[in-house]
Predict the 3D structure of the following.
Amino acid sequence: MPQLLPFYFVNQLSFAVLVLGTLVYVFGTYVLPVFVQLFVTRMYVTKL
Amino acid sequence: MVLFSSPLEQFEVTSFLNVNLTLLGLNFALTNLGLYALLVLMLSISVHVLAANDRRLVPSRWSVGLESAYASLHGMVKEQVGSSNERYLPFIYALFFFVILANLAGNVPYSFTISTSAVLSIGLSFTIFFAVTVLGLHKHGLHFFAFFVPAGTPLAMVPLLVLIELISYLARAFSLGVRLFANMVAGHTLLKILSGMLWPILTSGLLMFVVALIPMSIFLALVGLEVAVSVIQAYVFVVLTCVYLRDAIDLH
C-alpha cells in the first residue's frame, strides 16, 4: 500500500498537528465564545 | 487499449515543492497531503466566517447549520465527558470539523483524502490516546491504574483481568485511527475499481450504455453511501474521543 511507504511521515504528522492546533486556537478564541454569547443572549431575551 | 491504473494510486503522497535547508539538515516539502490539510484549515475557517451572521440574534440559513453543530457537540461533551468538563469542547469541536471536512473534501473527484493516510489517522489517534493517558495520570496519580481492575473482581482473577484490560486499553490507540483510515480507504478504493469497470462498458456502444445504467445507479448509490460514511466516521471518531476522555477523568 502506498500509505505504508515511509516517505513524508513526519511531514504528514506535522501538517496534521499544525492544522488541528490552529483550528483549536481559532475556534476556542474566536468562534465558540460567540456561540456562548449568542445562546445566553437568546435565553435572556426569551426567558427573562 | 485501456490502461488500468492501480486503485491504490490515489493514496500516494507526492511532493509538489521541496525546500532543502542544508543549514539545519531539514527538508520541507509541500505534498498533496499538506496542500489538502491547508485546504481543510481554510475551509473550516471560511465556513465559520461565512456563517458568522454579524452576531445577529436571528440566525441565517448558514448559521442555523453551525449553531446546530455547536449545540450537538456541546450536548455530546456535556453528556459524555461531564458538565464540569466543557473546557474540552474547543478540541472536540475542532477535531470534528477537521475530520468531517477532510473526509468530505476527499469525495470530490481527483482530490486527495488526507484521512486515507495511515500515518495521519493513526498518528492522530495515538496522540489522543497519549494525551488522555497523561490526563488520567495527572488527575488521579497512581490510582489511575485502578482503571485496569474492574470493581468486584476476585483477587485470583486480577492478574488475568489486568492483562485483558491493559490490552483492550492499548488497542484503543490503534483502533480509533484504523477505523477511520480503513473505512475511507475501503470506500475510495471500491469507487475507483467500480468506476474503472463502468467507464469502458458505458463507452462501448448504445446497447451496452443502456445495460450499464443499472450498475451505474448502484454506483451512484455507493457514492451517496461514501458521503454518509464520511459524516458517520467523523461523528464516531469524536464520540469515541469523548468516551476516552470521560474514562480518563472519571475512572469507572
